[in-house]
Amino acid sequence: MTGFPTLRMRRLRRTPALRRLVQEARLHRSQLVWPLFFKLDGKATPVSSMPGVLQHPLKDAGEIARKAADLGVGGVLLFGLPASKDDKGSGAYDDKGVIQEAVRGLKRAAQDLVVITDLCLCEYTSHGHCGIVRGDTVDNDATLELLAKTAVSQAAAGADVIAPSDMMDGRVAAIRKALDQKGFAETPILSYAAKYASSFYGPFRVAAESAPQFGDRRGYQMDPANGDEAMREIALDLEEGADFVMVKPALPCLDIIRRAKERFGGPIAAYQVSGEYSMIKLAAQAGALDGERAMLESLLAIRRAGADIIMTYAAPDAKLDA
Fold first, then answer.
1. CB-count exposure of residue 250 (10 Å: 0-12, 13-18, 19+)
2. N or C, where is the chain less crowded by C-beta within 10 Å?
3. Which DSSP state fits 113?
4. Domain range summary for the chain, segments of one domain joined by +
5. What residues contact 127, with CB distance under 8 A and at least 6 apart?
6. Can you tell me the distance from the alpha carbon of 30 to that of 263, in angstroms, rounded to the nearest whole number?
């Protein structure tokens, strides 16, 4: 192999046009999914810990759908804020619930927009955990029935993709069976297969009003120290019928994204979670860094690691031509 001075790596970095020509990881807005928070009524409310992110009233669903379609984002990912909560999270599987109505409003305005519904009970339970609580633990098997019921309700409302994020064992199989039995065999499942118990979810819990009222979620979400376990989780969800899988959070898990891509192929999704987003936004507000460039660099790192789809709150305004 010829070395210096014949080989000079800087030659292909000399101009913006040359750098674009040899760029390896490329981002298009169609690869980005925009997470959205919907509430039943009122005005759009800014999320204090997430600059630029709002809790949207249902009446704005049509406007948001048209904006998403015009921007060409890959899709939207929905989270709901119900009017009331109970110990069984009944608002999650209410056919007239906030997510079901948001789906209908979005699809009426933009039929071709890919609408993905997050499937979990934590936003709807009075205790803030992701399933039925028995004593001080979440009852895995009792929760599966409610998750399956919620999936059918979301699909019936018009959701294009069901995305379970609860991390209950066996939930993909339970959801797949319920969808197939109720006539939704063509509805795909995007499983949050490797979801870590991460400190980077803090701002989200403010936005979704879903913080647990006791304990934490480390009994069912993954230990951030474990990588081999993530491969087992992904393999199990694919065996149970997941059509594609997600790694969450993204930037702290670039190694997991790469391992998943190499082992399972694609498509692989990754979630640039609230803490990742807010760190960049708040640092930019403080003048510590160039927010636009830092956001793009973060998204490119996730893409370079192997993610085919990126969930990011920056989806509508990321400067992808930088």
1. buried
2. N
3. S
4. 26-312
5. 87, 133, 212, 213, 214
6. 24
Non-local CB neighbours of 310 within 8 Å, separated by 6+ positions: 31, 32, 33, 250, 269, 270, 271, 272, 299, 302, 303
Selection from 208, 191, 202 nearest residue 274 by Cα? 202
pTM of full prediction above 0.70: yes
CATH fold, domain 26-312, is TIM Barrel (3.20.20)
Work out whether the CA dihedral 158, 302, 38, 58 comes out positive or negative: negative
* Whether 281 is catalytic: no
Across the range 131-160, mean pLDDT stands at 91
Of residues 107, 248, 261, 281, which has the active-site annotation?
248
Tokens of 206: 């403010």
Where in the chain does DSSP place strands (E)? 32-39, 45-46, 54-57, 75-81, 115-119, 133-134, 137-138, 161-164, 190-195, 244-248, 268-272, 309-312
Q: Which residue do the tokens 């209410």 mark?
A: 94
Average pLDDT over every residue of 85-109: 94
Establish whether 248 is a catalytic residue: yes
Q: What span, in angstroms and rounded, lies between the C-alpha atoms of 275 and 291?
A: 14
d(CA 299, CA 308): 11
* Alpha-carbon gap, residue 32 to 116, rounded angstroms: 12
How far apart CA 302 and CA 245 sit, in angstroms, is 15
β-pairing verdict for 54-57 and 133-134: unpaired
Helices (H), 2-89: 16-21, 61-71
CB 261 within 8 A of CB 306: yes
What residues contact residue 114 under an 8 Å CB cut-off, 6+ apart? 33, 74, 75, 76, 160, 161
Catalytic residue among 39, 88, 107, 195: 195
Task: With beta carbons less than 8 A apart as the criterion, state whether 174 and 237 touch.
Answer: no
3-class DSSP state of 169: coil
